[in-house]
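User: I'm putting together a teaching handout on how multi-component assemblies are represented. Below are the sequence lines for each component of a complex, exactly as they appear in our records. Could you produce the 3D structure of the whole assembly as structure tokens, so the students can see both representations side by side? Please keep the chain order the same as the input.
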Amino acid sequence: MTAATTTLLEARGLTASRGGREILRGVDLSVDAGERVVILGANGSGKSTLLRVLAGLDRADAGTVRGEGLGLVLQQGALFPHLSVLDNVALAPRVRGFADPAARARRALASVDIDRPDAMPHELSGGQQQRVAIARALALEPRVLLLDEPTSALDPGATRDIERTLVELSTAGIASVIVTHDLPFAARVASRTLALEGGRLSSRA
Amino acid sequence: MRALRGGARGDGVSAGWLRCACRAVAACLAVLVVAHAARAQDRAELRWGADPSGGAPFAFFDPNDPSRVIGFEVDIMDELARRLGRSPVLERADWLALFDALEAKRCDILLNGFEVNDERAAVARFSVPYFRYGQQIVVRAADAGGVASLGDLKGKRVAVLNGSAAVDVLREAGFPDDAILQYDDSLAPYVEVRLGRADAALAESIIAAYYTGADPALARAGEPFAHGVYAAVTRKTDAAFAAEVDAALRAMQQDGALGEILQRWGLWDDSQLALGTAKGRPQEIKPAARGPAPDAPESSGGDAAGTIAAAVAKGALVTILLTAIAMPLATIAGLFLALGRISPRAWLSRAAVAYITVVRGTPLLVQIFLVYFSLPPLGQWLYAASPGALQSILDLAGGASFLTFPPLFVGAFCLAANYAAYEAEIHRAGIEAVPRIQWDAARALGLSRGQTIRHVIVPQGVRIAMPGIVNDLNSLIKDSCLVSVIGVTDLLAVSLGIGKARFTVPEMLVIAATVYLVLSIAGDLLGNWLERRLRARGFATTPAHAKGAHA
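Assistant: Of course. Below is the structure of the complete assembly, with chains in the same order as your input.
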């Protein structure tokens, strides 16, 4: 992760509609290595839709997304409740045939400071669950993390932990696109802040 | 169950037990198929059809050892088979279904009190007759004085054996259908007379003699009348075999072997001479021919109780075996049906819905009969339609009878196929209860639809479905008694058989019900234990983040 100016994600002219309403009306976004881009917006402004389109989970009506190694972290983690922490993180590498999935999972968990691999998800705090979700995405070695409301329902301490994790990751070159309406968190974590209004992205100071 | 401890390996608890269950079921199937093939190879058997629950003295469960079937027809068949150089094997079926069993080649000959008549002669071939009977009226002892013939029963209700010659006799005498009460076994008409629900019973004299001889509450009225004959039944297409049977039976009549059997069962009367049956040497009447002695010394009670308990336990084992084979199969098949139903492939989804709708919408009893009697002809048709190379492979599995599976196998299969439709709906509810975000999370990690279903959705859906499945395990234990209609000697069949042979049907039903209750409680305990194992370490059915939805 040396070239700090490498563009990892490039979206052009994304449009998408939900239930007959146009939610995205030509979104352009470009993310470089190590950036922490925060996207602010009111509820229903289309932030989640934008992330899902970027991650390939939903289809855009028009526009292009170019990017490699995108990892999506859904709201409140969405961990698999029937699997242990380690199995949550190791599942995708194992199923997709990556070498030594358990070691990958342990590395990913270490990078988010989780040391209870055998715990079940419900035994962890909300903040720890969120960090396991980040580790689950990291185990696939993405270059850009897409995070949907990573601090919703977290207490201030847990929010700080997430913040620290994201900053550490960015120093390792992993960029993040963070959708949130938590303004103080946004202010602390962002290296660049954008606003989603009327279906378009605009920069904020 | 290592995965339950959340070790480094194992991506889901369900994968472990599912694999385990699959292996167990496959092993059971393999054993059954091998046993089936081995049996099909044995050509020295003479498979004969009879319904031991029909009653004495034809072929019935030995009151003193209910695991054995005895009767004068059993003795005739033993002798007949010996003369044909084969060993007799009893194929059980409901009496009215025996002709279907013969047609389906489940057996090659019937010998079970079939009165020779035109309807039956139209569809099968009767042998030379082996017994001449007459109809006997039986009434309550108090009414005996006023009844001497059918004419004295005008306007009264008469109980008979379902489908027996007595039905035709009454119709010809002008009795309306609602005055003819038909029952499925030989004992029931007499019970009904004793209880006052019927005014008289009409049945062949030998049945009347066996069931009323020891009962002071009942009395025979008048002399036997409307005589007819019993004969063995073979398929019309087996002319050569029928000729062999006729020759052997004829020889038994002439050399006294048949007459001696009839004597031993107390059935000899000189009217048998009219059939050409010689009396033979004088014989002692067997104790079993007198019916279960009501005046038996108390000391033999303990012995009988032991054999009855052993027979009931064997029946209970069959019920457990049926459930143990059918429930895992139904659970696994139901899961695949549910996955088919939610599949984006329209044809697969429609096929699953069609199966579930048809199976849930038709009676299990009908399904059991249909499958049991249509598999053998289907197998024969498929065999005949197969090219030679395929036929030689099928020959290893019994040739044209490769689909003629034993009743237990067919019964377990029908129960599994039926319950699979219900489990499918339970699984579907479980799968649909898994939060949508779980599908998203798996897809976001790059898992395919199949991988998502296998590793993320099914393990959670099965846990949610578990209470419903455990509930169905409970009802399957009791529904399994329906397979007794195709001759599986399960708990209910054994209990009824003993009850009929010993005139203790109500008592045996209470015992059977008690054992079912015990089995069902055991089933619940097993189910609850399974549920707890699956929920081990506090897996929550409704995870906290189920509520979290994306904007």
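A couple of points students might notice: Helices of chain A lie at 47-55, 85-95, 101-111, 126-138, 156-171, 183-189. Chain A has one domain: 30-203.
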